Amino acid sequence: MWDVICFDNAMSHTANMVKDRLSNLLHCSLNFGPVDMPMRRSLIERFFQSLEESGFHRLPNTTGSGPKDPRRNEPEQRAINYQITYEHLLELVDVLISNYNGTPHGGIYNQRPLELLQKRMEKGMTPRKLDKIKQSEMLFMQTAMKRTIRGSIASGKRPYIQYEGVEYRNERLANSAHLIGTEVTLHVNVDDIRVIKAFLPDGSELGYLSAAGKWSLTSHTLQIRQAINKLVTRRLLHFTYWDDPIFIYTEFLLSQAKIGKKRDVNKVKNVQEVARKKTNKKEQDTDPELMVRNEALERARTQVKVAKDIKSDDYDEILKDLKTITY
């Protein structure tokens, strides 16, 4: 682990969550440099140049160093023609960094970076390592907040927690009407908000709470959820309880991309990349009723489509089959 991290003073680096995780989780100092002064970060700027000249700018889909760079030749179309994916770029970066660490450099007396590191470790330098318990990506992206348990005994509304426009609950919470009105602490992984972890005021775990309906199916970030809610508020997007909001959102972005809005193409790729992530196995094991409810929802959704072609006399029989777990 590093002891100091240097920034270029971009606004994204001043986010409270970033500063908190770097200081309290990684225990490193933050060095905010002046804006638009790359000479203050000469080493990292030189390394970025090596990545570009040795790798990215040699690709057929390179965007060059600017719009007027002669190496730029329809990069978007070439990326499609050669089927260059995000995974390919990750592999390229891995190879470039490996080559860099294994190549002698004049700045360190023609030694290889790995060779120099080995010599320093032999002289007693011990690299700082992050504890294994803190190495989880989820822990770094986790944020805490307070929410009040809602519900109504009079109307029969089972207890739940509202977060970003979606109800969350598990079996324990649904059967704990005495907790209505209690303020709990939520630990939310903003990279995947299908499930959140809740703690009672005394510190005991309430467990993992899953999002209601189809929100719990496809992995999505807090940013994606907020984008969907914004479109719903503007009445540009609509979905039912049986629909997967992420799929509906993807279809909307694709429709926008077809009419020439290129920024939506990148959004589609981002949504698809996030959707590939799987729910943490511990979360799945902690909330087994989630799978049962989702299977019932999928079965009901299919039967609703079939019911449209059935006579009204048989419709009551269909409705009986649609009964599922409700809260």
TrEMBL record:
It comes from the Bacteria. This is Integrase catalytic domain-containing protein. It comes from Cohnella terricola.
